[in-house]
Write a structure and sequence with these properties.
mainly alpha; membrane; LSME1 protein; DUF4577
Length: 129
């Protein structure tokens, strides 16, 4: 009769060990994600002496993870906006430069024409270089 009771007690001890390991891993994960808030929730859990799952600590961990996610999204959005702004500014500058180059090309072509006319006139008048 005692033998079955020992077999029943051993799995219970094993299950408590599993719960302890899972709680330890959860606490370690909370410390890695958000050290300050997790430490606060761990202190509360130690003060209460509760061996079950602490809902406030879990909510704090989820809250910290959510805030981290939102901050990451905001920073990503700011960086993308900045890159788009730089692309637009670069395109505007390139348009200005290309329009200046076209106007300078027209001026150079006009100067070449004037130079050719002057050379023809000088050649006809008999004055040579």
């Amino acid at each position: 009769m005692e033998r079955p009771s020992l077999e029943i007690n051993l799995p219970d001890i094993h299950e408590e060990g599993k719960l302890y390991v899972v709680d330890s891993l959860n606490n370690l994960n909370k410390l890695n994600v958000c050290a300050d808030e997790s430490q606060h929730s761990l202190d509360e859990e130690e003060n209460t002496g509760d061996t079950g799952e602490n809902m406030a600590g879990s909510n704090t961990g989820n809250h910290c993870l959510f805030i981290t996610f939102i901050l990451t999204l905001i920073i990503s959005l700011a960086l993308v906006s900045f890159v788009i702004f730089l692309i637009i500014q670069t395109r505007n500058k390139m348009d200005q430069i290309s329009s200046r180059l076209l106007s300078e090309k027209k001026n150079i072509d006009e100067l070449k024409k004037i130079n050719n006319i002057l050379l023809k006139h000088l050649n006809h008048s008999g004055i040579k270089d």
